[in-house]
Write a structure and sequence with these properties.
Number of helices: 11
Order of helices and strands: HHHEEHEHEEEEHHEHEHEHEEH
Helix content: 40-55%
Shape: elongated
CATH architecture of the largest domain: 3-Layer(aba) Sandwich
Distance between the termini: 35 Å
Structural class: alpha/beta
Strand content: 15-25%
Strand order of the largest sheet: 4-3-5-12-6
CATH superfamily of the largest domain: Periplasmic binding protein-like II
CATH topology of the largest domain: D-Maltodextrin-Binding Protein, domain 2
CATH class of the largest domain: Alpha Beta
Number of strands: 12
Largest sheet: 5 strands, mixed
């Protein structure tokens, strides 16, 4: 396989061309003369060309080197322009960004990530909306949404797929130690379940329990996802939770594997009207990277446990 061109070597090429020697180039770049000579040799090897004639008075461009030097300057100018544009976008990345999602994702997934976002971009103010109401991105009710969807994500909405939004049953480690971990429908019938989590979460959750014939095993309802999570951790019972949250919690134990084939996908989305706004692009890029890393960590952990 052919060696790849290291674009950084063009800096050494131009420094020698301008300074007339590896010594002068080293001083300009604040590196050793040996480093400059080594990088020039590496560049010549990759290109298959001799760029300089080594004379007693210093380095002189060959015909090939002279022909390429202006091209190298164009690359240097383009790279500088790229860096300036990126810096300008960072300077322009200020203002309010409104994010909407379910409470359980806002508190347990996004919440821990927002400190680093603030440290990187202190001029961006986040408004995190975890209400039960569905926010219309097209009408400007939010800039970014973390949500699940079946099929089409909506007109004008553009997004990045994160993962299958798998949910299943969890209990606390304390509950498992006292009552055991149920793995079958018959075993589940002998356990207590915690309901609630808010209307949107409860719609999906109650359908889950109904399919398993466990409606009558619910002993408590919580109005919020935070309350439901607190009840599970206290050892009160079992509940259905999203894998992307629960599998990351060391205090929780998965009772049964998630059901496949549900078709529900977790998306990080925005709308065409704001997708190019620097503040929105910065936030959605940051969140996509952080959430994707989180999901990969969970997948690797699950693979290790199954091995």
């Amino acid at each position: 396989m052919a060696a790849m061109l290291d674009w950084n070597d063009l800096r050494y090429f131009l420094a020698v061309a301008d300074g007339g020697s590896t010594l002068a180039a080293g001083r300009a770049l604040r590196v050793s003369q040996t480093t400059v000579a080594r990088r020039i040799a590496a560049l010549e090897e990759v290109l298959g060309l001799t760029l300089f004639e080594k004379r007693q008075a210093g380095y002189a461009l060959t015909a090939a080197g002279d022909e390429l030097v202006e091209r190298a300057r164009q690359v240097q100018t383009a790279a500088s322009g790229f860096a300036d544009a990126a810096a300008a976008q960072n300077r322009d990345a200020s203002g309010i960004v409104r994010i909407t999602t379910q409470e359980i994702f806002a508190v347990h997934l996004l919440g821990p990530m927002l400190r680093e976002l603030h440290e990187r971009h202190p001029d961006i103010m986040i408004e995190l909306d975890d209400s039960q109401d569905f926010r219309e991105l097209g009408e400007g009710e939010a800039d970014i949404a973390l949500r699940s969807a079946y099929g089409d994500i909506g007109p004008g909405v553009v997004g990045r797929r994160l993962c299958d939004d798998d949910w299943t049953l969890y209990c606390s480690r304390g509950y498992a130690a006292e009552h055991g971990v149920p793995h079958t429908r018959a075993q589940l019938r002998k356990h207590a379940f915690i309901g609630g989590g808010g209307p949107k979460l409860w719609r999906a959750y109650s359908a889950w329990l109904h399919d398993l014939g466990l409606d009558d095993r619910v002993i408590m309802h919580h109005a919020s996802a935070i309350g439901m999570m607190s009840a599970i951790r206290s050892g009160l019972g079992i509940a259905v939770l999203p894998r992307v949250i629960a599998d990351a919690d060391p205090e929780l134990v998965q009772c049964v594997p998630p059901k496949g084939g549900h078709g529900r996908v977790m998306w990080l989305v925005t709308h065409e009207r704001v997708r190019r706004a620097p503040r929105v692009r910065v936030v959605i890029d940051f969140l996509y990277d952080k959430i994707s890393r989180h999901i990969r960590m969970l997948d690797e952990r699950a693979a290790d446990a199954a091995a």
